[in-house]
Amino acid sequence: VRLNQITRNLKNFAANVSHELRTPLTSLSILVKSMQEYTMDHWQQQEFLQDMDRELDRLINLVQDLLELTKVEHFRDTKKEVFCLVKLTLEIINQIKPRFNRQDLRLITQDFPSPPVHIYGSPFQMRLVIHNLMDNAIKHTAPGGWIRVSITLEGSGVIIKVEDTGCGIPDEDLPYIFERFYRVDRARSRSGGGTGLGLAIAKEVVEAHGGRIWVETSTGKGSAFFVYLPRHG
To answer: Strand (E) positions, the chain?
Structure first.
Protein backbone atom coordinates (compact mmCIF):
# COMPACT_ATOMS: atom_id res chain seq x y z
CA VAL A 1 0.00 0.00 0.00
CA ARG A 2 2.82 2.38 0.95
CA LEU A 3 4.64 1.64 -2.33
CA ASN A 4 1.48 2.32 -4.33
CA GLN A 5 1.02 5.65 -2.54
CA ILE A 6 4.62 6.66 -3.28
CA THR A 7 4.17 5.70 -6.94
CA ARG A 8 0.97 7.79 -7.19
CA ASN A 9 2.69 10.75 -5.52
CA LEU A 10 5.61 10.55 -7.94
CA LYS A 11 3.27 10.40 -10.93
CA ASN A 12 1.26 13.39 -9.68
CA PHE A 13 4.45 15.33 -8.98
CA ALA A 14 5.83 14.57 -12.45
CA ALA A 15 2.54 15.63 -14.04
CA ASN A 16 2.53 18.91 -12.11
CA VAL A 17 6.14 19.67 -12.98
CA SER A 18 5.48 18.92 -16.66
CA HIS A 19 2.48 21.26 -16.66
CA GLU A 20 4.33 24.07 -14.87
CA LEU A 21 7.26 23.82 -17.30
CA ARG A 22 5.10 23.52 -20.40
CA THR A 23 3.14 26.74 -19.77
CA PRO A 24 6.06 29.23 -19.84
CA LEU A 25 7.85 27.24 -22.56
CA THR A 26 4.75 27.41 -24.76
CA SER A 27 4.49 31.16 -24.16
CA LEU A 28 8.15 31.63 -25.05
CA SER A 29 7.74 29.60 -28.23
CA ILE A 30 4.77 31.72 -29.35
CA LEU A 31 6.60 34.97 -28.58
CA VAL A 32 9.74 33.92 -30.47
CA LYS A 33 7.78 32.76 -33.53
CA SER A 34 5.77 35.99 -33.54
CA MET A 35 8.97 38.07 -33.55
CA GLN A 36 10.33 35.95 -36.40
CA GLU A 37 7.21 36.10 -38.56
CA TYR A 38 5.96 39.67 -38.10
CA THR A 39 7.53 43.07 -38.66
CA MET A 40 7.50 45.03 -35.41
CA ASP A 41 8.46 48.53 -34.42
CA HIS A 42 10.83 49.19 -31.52
CA TRP A 43 8.09 49.46 -28.88
CA GLN A 44 6.41 46.23 -29.95
CA GLN A 45 9.76 44.45 -29.78
CA GLN A 46 10.37 45.81 -26.29
CA GLU A 47 6.94 44.64 -25.15
CA PHE A 48 7.57 41.14 -26.50
CA LEU A 49 11.03 41.04 -24.91
CA GLN A 50 9.54 42.02 -21.55
CA ASP A 51 7.01 39.18 -21.85
CA MET A 52 9.82 36.76 -22.69
CA ASP A 53 11.87 37.98 -19.74
CA ARG A 54 8.89 37.42 -17.42
CA GLU A 55 8.41 33.84 -18.66
CA LEU A 56 12.14 33.14 -18.25
CA ASP A 57 11.93 34.40 -14.66
CA ARG A 58 9.08 31.96 -14.04
CA LEU A 59 11.17 29.09 -15.37
CA ILE A 60 14.18 30.10 -13.27
CA ASN A 61 12.04 30.43 -10.12
CA LEU A 62 10.44 27.04 -10.75
CA VAL A 63 13.78 25.28 -11.23
CA GLN A 64 15.23 26.95 -8.12
CA ASP A 65 12.22 25.93 -6.02
CA LEU A 66 12.38 22.36 -7.32
CA LEU A 67 16.06 22.20 -6.38
CA GLU A 68 15.30 23.51 -2.90
CA LEU A 69 12.48 20.99 -2.52
CA THR A 70 14.91 18.20 -3.38
CA LYS A 71 17.37 19.47 -0.75
CA VAL A 72 14.62 19.56 1.88
CA GLU A 73 13.67 15.96 1.13
CA HIS A 74 17.30 15.01 1.85
CA PHE A 75 17.37 16.95 5.13
CA ARG A 76 19.14 14.11 6.94
CA ASP A 77 22.12 14.62 4.64
CA THR A 78 22.09 18.42 5.06
CA LYS A 79 24.77 20.06 7.18
CA LYS A 80 23.23 21.13 10.50
CA GLU A 81 24.43 23.55 13.13
CA VAL A 82 23.24 25.62 16.07
CA PHE A 83 22.23 29.13 14.98
CA CYS A 84 20.45 32.16 16.41
CA LEU A 85 16.94 32.53 14.99
CA VAL A 86 16.64 36.21 15.96
CA LYS A 87 19.90 37.11 14.21
CA LEU A 88 18.86 35.19 11.09
CA THR A 89 15.45 36.90 11.00
CA LEU A 90 16.97 40.37 11.39
CA GLU A 91 19.38 39.66 8.52
CA ILE A 92 16.45 38.73 6.27
CA ILE A 93 14.50 41.83 7.32
CA ASN A 94 17.46 44.08 6.47
CA GLN A 95 17.83 42.44 3.06
CA ILE A 96 14.16 42.73 2.16
CA LYS A 97 13.49 46.15 3.74
CA PRO A 98 13.97 48.19 0.50
CA ARG A 99 10.94 46.43 -0.99
CA PHE A 100 8.73 47.86 1.75
CA ASN A 101 9.72 51.41 0.80
CA ARG A 102 9.22 50.77 -2.92
CA GLN A 103 5.73 49.33 -2.36
CA ASP A 104 4.65 51.84 0.31
CA LEU A 105 4.33 49.21 3.03
CA ARG A 106 5.05 49.64 6.73
CA LEU A 107 7.23 47.05 8.46
CA ILE A 108 6.59 46.41 12.15
CA THR A 109 8.93 44.30 14.27
CA GLN A 110 8.10 43.44 17.86
CA ASP A 111 8.60 40.94 20.70
CA PHE A 112 12.08 39.93 19.58
CA PRO A 113 13.71 38.22 22.60
CA SER A 114 16.92 39.88 23.76
CA PRO A 115 18.77 36.68 24.75
CA PRO A 116 19.87 34.51 21.80
CA VAL A 117 17.26 31.99 20.63
CA HIS A 118 19.15 28.97 19.37
CA ILE A 119 17.82 26.45 16.85
CA TYR A 120 19.52 23.28 15.66
CA GLY A 121 19.23 22.62 11.96
CA SER A 122 19.96 24.27 8.63
CA PRO A 123 20.15 28.09 8.74
CA PHE A 124 20.03 28.16 4.93
CA GLN A 125 16.75 26.24 4.81
CA MET A 126 15.23 28.22 7.67
CA ARG A 127 16.18 31.40 5.80
CA LEU A 128 14.06 30.11 2.90
CA VAL A 129 11.06 29.68 5.19
CA ILE A 130 11.17 33.17 6.70
CA HIS A 131 11.96 34.81 3.37
CA ASN A 132 9.07 32.98 1.66
CA LEU A 133 6.59 34.07 4.33
CA MET A 134 7.70 37.70 4.14
CA ASP A 135 7.77 37.60 0.33
CA ASN A 136 4.19 36.29 0.23
CA ALA A 137 3.06 38.98 2.65
CA ILE A 138 4.60 41.71 0.49
CA LYS A 139 3.09 40.30 -2.72
CA HIS A 140 -0.42 40.15 -1.30
CA THR A 141 -0.55 43.41 0.67
CA ALA A 142 -1.71 46.57 -1.08
CA PRO A 143 0.24 49.86 -0.81
CA GLY A 144 -0.44 51.62 2.48
CA GLY A 145 -0.75 48.36 4.40
CA TRP A 146 1.57 46.90 7.01
CA ILE A 147 3.41 43.66 7.74
CA ARG A 148 4.35 42.66 11.28
CA VAL A 149 7.11 40.18 12.15
CA SER A 150 7.42 38.91 15.71
CA ILE A 151 9.34 36.23 17.59
CA THR A 152 8.06 35.00 20.95
CA LEU A 153 9.15 32.25 23.32
CA GLU A 154 6.61 29.48 23.84
CA GLY A 155 7.50 26.84 26.43
CA SER A 156 10.53 24.94 25.18
CA GLY A 157 10.09 26.39 21.71
CA VAL A 158 9.77 29.65 19.81
CA ILE A 159 7.11 31.06 17.48
CA ILE A 160 7.79 33.25 14.45
CA LYS A 161 4.74 35.16 13.29
CA VAL A 162 4.42 36.99 9.95
CA GLU A 163 1.19 38.98 9.81
CA ASP A 164 -0.16 41.21 7.03
CA THR A 165 -3.13 43.38 6.10
CA GLY A 166 -3.45 41.76 2.68
CA CYS A 167 -6.34 40.10 0.90
CA GLY A 168 -6.52 37.04 3.15
CA ILE A 169 -7.15 33.46 2.07
CA PRO A 170 -10.64 32.11 1.23
CA ASP A 171 -11.87 29.31 3.50
CA GLU A 172 -12.14 26.87 0.61
CA ASP A 173 -8.42 27.25 -0.14
CA LEU A 174 -7.11 26.79 3.41
CA PRO A 175 -6.87 22.95 3.35
CA TYR A 176 -4.62 23.08 0.28
CA ILE A 177 -2.26 26.05 0.67
CA PHE A 178 0.67 23.92 1.84
CA GLU A 179 0.34 21.49 -1.07
CA ARG A 180 2.87 21.56 -3.88
CA PHE A 181 1.93 23.75 -6.87
CA TYR A 182 -1.26 25.01 -5.22
CA ARG A 183 -2.03 28.70 -5.78
CA VAL A 184 -4.85 30.60 -4.13
CA ASP A 185 -4.96 33.12 -6.97
CA ARG A 186 -3.42 31.40 -9.98
CA ALA A 187 -3.62 34.40 -12.30
CA ARG A 188 -1.94 36.77 -9.84
CA SER A 189 0.63 34.15 -8.81
CA ARG A 190 1.64 33.61 -12.42
CA SER A 191 2.00 37.34 -13.10
CA GLY A 192 4.04 37.70 -9.91
CA GLY A 193 6.32 34.80 -10.75
CA GLY A 194 4.92 32.45 -8.10
CA THR A 195 5.52 28.73 -8.53
CA GLY A 196 3.11 27.36 -5.93
CA LEU A 197 6.02 25.70 -4.12
CA GLY A 198 6.97 28.31 -1.52
CA LEU A 199 4.59 27.22 1.24
CA ALA A 200 5.13 23.54 0.46
CA ILE A 201 8.88 24.05 0.92
CA ALA A 202 8.26 26.01 4.13
CA LYS A 203 6.10 23.21 5.57
CA GLU A 204 8.61 20.49 4.76
CA VAL A 205 11.53 22.50 6.17
CA VAL A 206 9.67 23.32 9.39
CA GLU A 207 8.55 19.73 9.93
CA ALA A 208 12.07 18.46 9.22
CA HIS A 209 13.21 20.73 12.08
CA GLY A 210 10.64 19.18 14.42
CA GLY A 211 8.24 22.12 14.20
CA ARG A 212 4.91 22.98 12.64
CA ILE A 213 3.43 25.78 10.53
CA TRP A 214 -0.14 27.08 10.36
CA VAL A 215 -2.14 30.11 9.28
CA GLU A 216 -4.96 32.25 10.64
CA THR A 217 -6.72 34.38 8.06
CA SER A 218 -9.72 36.55 7.31
CA THR A 219 -10.72 37.23 3.71
CA GLY A 220 -10.21 40.89 2.87
CA LYS A 221 -8.45 41.63 6.17
CA GLY A 222 -5.17 39.73 6.06
CA SER A 223 -3.33 36.62 7.18
CA ALA A 224 -0.97 35.57 9.95
CA PHE A 225 1.44 32.68 9.42
CA PHE A 226 2.92 31.00 12.49
CA VAL A 227 6.02 28.80 12.68
CA TYR A 228 6.74 26.88 15.88
CA LEU A 229 10.26 25.48 16.34
CA PRO A 230 11.86 23.67 19.27
CA ARG A 231 14.71 25.59 20.89
CA HIS A 232 18.17 24.10 21.26
CA GLY A 233 19.68 23.74 24.71
So the answer is: 81-84, 106-110, 118-121, 146-154, 157-164, 212-218, 222-230
Q: Which CATH class is domain 1-73?
A: mainly alpha
Q: Give the pLDDT confidence score for residue 197 in this predicted structure.
A: 74
Contact call for residues 83 and 119 (beta carbons, < 8 A): yes
Contacts by residues 59-62 (CB-CB < 8 Å, ≥ 24 positions apart): 59/21, 59/24, 59/25, 61/193, 61/194, 61/195, 62/20, 62/21, 62/24, 62/195, 62/197
| CATH T-level assignment (fold) for domain 78-230 | Heat Shock Protein 90 (3.30.565)
Cα 69 to Cα 35, 181, 206, distances in angstroms: 36, 12, 12
Of the CA atoms within 13 Å of residue 158, those in its CB half-sphere come to 22
Going by pLDDT thresholds of 50, 70 and 90, the confidence category of residue 144 is: very high
Which segments of the chain belong to CATH 3.30.565.10? 78-230
Taking only the tens place, the pLDDT of each residue in 202-215 is: 898 899 899 999 99
The β-bridge partners of 88 are none
Angle between helices 2-37 and 42-73 (to 10 degrees): 160
Q: How many residues does the chain have?
A: 233
Give the Å distances, CA to CA, from 89 to 124, 135, 161, 194: 12, 13, 11, 22
pLDDT digits (tens, 9 = 90+) for 57-66: 777 666 666 6
Residue 188 pLDDT: 41
In angstroms, rounded to a whole number, what is the distance separating the alpha carbons of residues 78 and 75? 5
